[in-house]
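Reviewer comment 2.1 asked that we show a complete input and output for one of the modelled complexes. We chose the cobalt (II) ion case, as it is the one discussed in the main text.
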Amino acid sequence: MERKRFIWISGRAISNMPLDSSFGGKDTMDDVAVPPPVSGTYPVPESDIAARVQALESILLEKGLLSSDAIDKVVETYEKDIGPMLGAKVVARTWTNPAFRARLLENAVAACKELGIGGAQGEHLVAIENTDKVHNVIVCTLCSCYPWTVLGLPPNWYKYPQYRSRIVIEPRKMLKEDFGLDIPDGKEIRVWDSSSELRYFVIPERPLGTENLTEEELASIVTREAMIGVAEVRKP
Ligand SMILES: [Co+2]
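Response of the prediction step:
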């Protein structure tokens, strides 16, 4: 698979690029070896990854490059303080405050700062909005770049090769088959390739019938999956 092709065009909606014949002249991956769906297990067993992490951690500690306190602090922060509830807050604000929405689309870093959201890896955050004509979905085709500051740590499937390759090639089919999200044919789907320099998150559409909800109530219905673009927000 021609991975480089995606790296070069990172920063634009890659689904808008014309498909070339990178799959041996075939249009989709259906005709090549079909990868297992996202719900399948990662090719490497989790115990192997845990062992690798353990080995890395102990060598970094041994060499004095890292303290165990620092590791604990990062883990704790991502468990307790940083997660999709922050992105949900941002989304709810865009639904209730058009001026904020405009500022967010113009400069997500500055707008998130207004809500006290920012920090490491948040320097190059970009918000993209779903509309009645366009549905957006994010991926990192190279590895697992993700908007940590607003969504926390990524779900495991986001890092799977199956998701990273297939969502680019046949987003409509994959959204339907793997996530149960049926995007009408008339609606364009744009796939955004994140990188360490540019991390996208999706502003989902506000569901109908939520006019009477408060901003806080609205935030409570916004899911991580909706901000990745593999789900829609539903009325409670
Ligand atoms: Co990445």
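The domain at 82-236 is CATH 3.90.330.10 (Nitrile Hydratase; Chain A). We note this here for comparison with the apo prediction described in Section 3.2.
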